């Protein structure tokens, strides 16, 4: 749209691009875990995904992004967690390529 200004965040706790991307990563991974768990009859209740995204300024025009994800799967047996996570990461297009830590 030409001639239209969009509001810019003013730092009052509003969502910035990093927070939006982190929310998308966490949601995508969580849904992929829930879907993958249905094939193995695993209980994902109480599971949680955390994502932290950092936007790095390389110079005035170049940026890079870094993401750190972690997941807790309290009701999935310990010996099945890594396989479930691997399967979910393969099916989550946003997360594929980022490392995900399994928390106890």
Automatic annotation (TrEMBL):
Tell me the superkingdom of the source.
Bacteria
The record's section on InterPro entries has: KH_dom-like_a/b, OHR, OsmC/Ohr_fam, OsmC/Ohrsf
One Gene Ontology biological process: response to oxidative stress
PANTHER family documented for this protein:
ORGANIC HYDROPEROXIDE RESISTANCE PROTEIN-LIKE
Family label: Belongs to the OsmC/Ohr family.
Q: What is this protein called?
A: Osmotically inducible protein OsmC
- Organism, scientific name: Lentzea guizhouensis
């Amino acid at each position: 749209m030409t001639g239209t200004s969009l509001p810019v965040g003013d730092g009052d706790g509003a969502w910035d691009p990093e927070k939006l991307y982190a929310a998308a990563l966490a949601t995508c991974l969580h849904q992929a875990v829930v879907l993958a768990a249905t094939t193995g009859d695993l209980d994902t209740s109480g599971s949680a995904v955390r994502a932290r995204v950092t936007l790095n300024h390389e110079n005035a025009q170049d940026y890079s992004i870094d993401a750190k994800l972690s997941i807790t799967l309290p009701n999935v047996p310990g010996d099945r967690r890594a396989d479930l996570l691997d399967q979910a990461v393969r099916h989550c297009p946003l997360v594929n390529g980022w490392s995900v830590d399994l928390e106890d």
